[in-house]
Amino acid sequence: MSIMVPSTTPALITPGRQALDSALHQLDQAAAHLGLDDGLRTMLATPRRSLTVSVPVRREDGRLDVVQGYRVQHNVSRGPAKGGLRFHPGTDIHEVTALAMWMTWKCALVGIPYGGAKGGVAVDPAGLTTRELERLTRRYVSEIMPLIGPEKDIPAPDVGTDEQTMAWVMDTYSVSAGYSVPGVVTGKPMTLGGSLGRTGATSRGVQIAALAALGRSPEGVTVAVQGFGKVGALAAQYLSDAGCKVVAVSDVTGAVYRAAGLDVARLRAYAAETGGVRGFHQADALSHEDLFELDVDVLVPAALEGVITEANAPRIRARLVVEGANGPTTPGADEILAANGTLVVPDILANAGGVIVSYLEWVQNMQAYAWSSGEIELKLRDLMLNAFTEVKSLAAERGLTMRQAAHVIGVGRVAEAHQMRGLYP
Ligand code: GLU
């Protein structure tokens, strides 16, 4: 860990800056389609609040390290800001801003009453002990405390964070408030007011979106999943449970392939035990790049941004791409995929299952009431399929890609909220 002082004029085009450029490009297209005026477009292109904090962390050996943390509230016009908290060494203010913007459109698209936010800490959680991670999380929360709250901004898990992290967020906030505030964060453990179905919610949403986009029986449909973490591993499991043949998956340790279909449950157990999919005995090794180029029906990118680019898009043979990750496809790649007839179910639709069940968790917290897993599953399916149908029909009606249609709906709803509220003062 080292001190990283963010510059307002970064010398390098970071992956985060590329993600923000992609998000701004998508917004521009939607704003042009909707005929939004320049002032409103600029409002939507800039976050309402953006906080950078330096987080001091006491290491086990007594040293003091300082890492950069961020919380960006992109928009709050439809309700409290909502979005995950990411711990990743590559995160920066640009990436967090892009991710916050995507949260805004995602919440509007699926019709839940939230704005969009994201948090990030530029740190590799695997390089910290549990106690260091706890101290880091608590100090980061105390630094961003003025921004968050159940009616203001509600964090949730994202890359590198989990329900334990959310428990620390909830506790730090509650200790400062003087009473338990479960609604300040979602993706909590069940015992602290978490919701049934939240752990697998993003993956369940990916499965629902993929099956809806397939429009035929999933029996024997071949799938490759890039990223075998919280989202990818369970998406692979649920698609396999539905009858698909998951032939390849990858994670940071490597990629594995089996033409006859992987035993996903065994692979998950293997990865949990060994720390990754590499070396799984019932499969062949594959390179990370080759996974993208497999002749499969469905490709699910479920890791980080910017992995489908102009460089590899021409070689993608999947008929359908379902984005479990946020921002995995660059605008240049989008054009190539569209020209090749590949259907892309965009991130703000395909991975909305997570924030949908986060919303259900928050509603339960605010009412001090709990729903059954059946009720959660039904509501999740309903919201996902409604949004899917709206996007599909708008795309067909206006000759747009599903990403363009999803953005036109999401951006349009936020723009409408702004116009109805008017400008203060
Ligand atoms: N981090 C997830 C996402 O990108 C979930 C956010 C949430 O539940 O608030 O959608």
TrEMBL record:
Keyword NAD among UniProt keywords: yes
Residue ranges of domain Glutamate/phenylalanine/leucine/valine/L-tryptophan dehydrogenase C-terminal in the record: 195-422
Binding site for substrate: 82, 106, 358
Signal peptide extent: none
SUPFAM superfamilies: Aminoacid dehydrogenase-like, N-terminal domain, NAD(P)-binding Rossmann-fold domains
GO aspect biological process, one term: L-glutamate catabolic process
Superkingdom, taxonomy of origin: Bacteria
Keywords from the UniProt entry: NAD, Nucleotide-binding, Oxidoreductase
Sequence positions that bind NAD(+): 202
GO MF assignments: glutamate dehydrogenase (NAD+) activity; nucleotide binding
UniProt site (Important for catalysis): 158
Active site: 118 (proton donor)
InterPro entries reported in the protein's UniProt record: Aminoacid_DH-like_N_sf, Glu/Leu/Phe/Val/Trp_DH, Glu/Leu/Phe/Val/Trp_DH_C, Glu/Leu/Phe/Val/Trp_DH_dimer, Glu/Leu/Phe/Val_DH_AS, Glu_DH, NAD(P)-bd_dom_sf, NAD_bind_Glu_DH
Family: Belongs to the Glu/Leu/Phe/Val dehydrogenases family.
Entry protein name: Glutamate dehydrogenase
